[in-house]
Amino acid sequence: MKWFRFTVLILAGAIIQSSALMETVSLTVQHIKPNILLILLVYFAISCDSYDAIIISFAIGFAADLTGALIGPYFISFGIIGTAIAHIRKLILVKKTGQQAIVIFAAGILIQIPAIILAKIKGSTAETGGFLEIFAVPIYSAILWFLVKWPVTAIGKWLGVGIHRFKLRIDER
Amino acid sequence: MARRQFKPSKLTLFIGLVLLGCIFLLLPQNVTSRLNFAFIDIFGFFLKMGSSVTQNRPAALSPDYVPREEYNRLQTAYANLEAELAEQKKQVDVLSKVRLTEPDPSTGLVLAKVVNKKENEFIINRGAGDGLKTGQYVLGDNAVIGLVEQVSNDISSVRLVTSSACKIPIKISAPEINKYFNGTIQGNDKKGARVLNIPQKYEIKTGFNVYAAEKAGFLRSMRIIGRIAKCTAGEKNPTVWDITVEPAYNLNNITDVAVIVLKQPE
Hints:
Oligomer: heterodimer
Shape of chain B: rod-shaped
Strand content of chain A: under 5%
Helix content of chain B: 25-40%
CATH architecture of the domain at 97-262 in chain B: Beta Barrel
Largest interface: A-B, 36 and 29 residues
Order of helices and strands of chain B: HHHHHEEEEEEEEEEEE
Distance between the termini of chain B: 112 Å
């Protein structure tokens, strides 16, 4: 894993996620946008070894917090869900694109709900989106995965991951 | 001796990072928000990228396009205006009906709602602040129904023609001979009023209209009060008529009134 390149990638992902550019792909009047960081989280969680996946998950969560208004809620929720995916993929093969899209959808919901709760605990008064938005963003991200899988995989290879993709490393057996 | 590289176990790493997240969460927002502001400050240029593209979206090009927040704000204002317009239309309808029988343009009308009904008395929601004063004529459905009795700044009491405390100079129309007979009307504290001291030499009949007579400063032209319901020889004094007048409208059904406020000459 090339950590410097990874840092640049996550930073770029965070910038794109919070940039006005994402408005061009937003849907409906509620401005539903895909979550690039969610896609990256799931990709790295199922592609890296579990040790790296823990660090990556929390790092992506931190990037997600930077793009929002609070530091902490996404750090924890991305970290926990990313770590969980990294462990689950040892038991369940997530090989097909459709399966990966389902994981993105499920992870999106599982991340959003605790993040909203944690944000409320921290005392955020910002609107957290309705029931539709909690489900719509993961659905949009999951659908987008079919389109961006190839470039994300190429970036993953550039970062030095994906070589052991969908397989268990020798030291993890 | 080679330096040992520190590499915690997965569990230690995970717990450590979760604890770090908890620390982030517990830190005051004004401290952690500095990170968010720093991110925006540093990458502000990149974050604005695409804003021109967004502004040039087809919807934004339309002159009819407004943001959702603006639309909601305008919709709320529109709903309020619509309700106000309905109320104004209602008042115009009432005023236009009154105007049909009130040709004098110098006559001012103050519309009021009946907020309380007592025995032979109405309480209306207009007062001295609206130009009301004691003795002014009050119309209900275009007929005189009483006089303003007491006035406060924002409410007034109206003594109805059915009250014995209400005395109004009147004219009885005799269309057959094209004459008017002067008199005074006084309520009978029931549902009608009596006309006092009309000599029997005047040919008064049931069904004649009774009008409120002109009164300087209060009423410039006659306005109907009611019709004669009963006309018999007086019991105490047989030389005068005992006339019972029925108001033109059922006073119990009146919810809105108009007070005649004459404009003073400048």
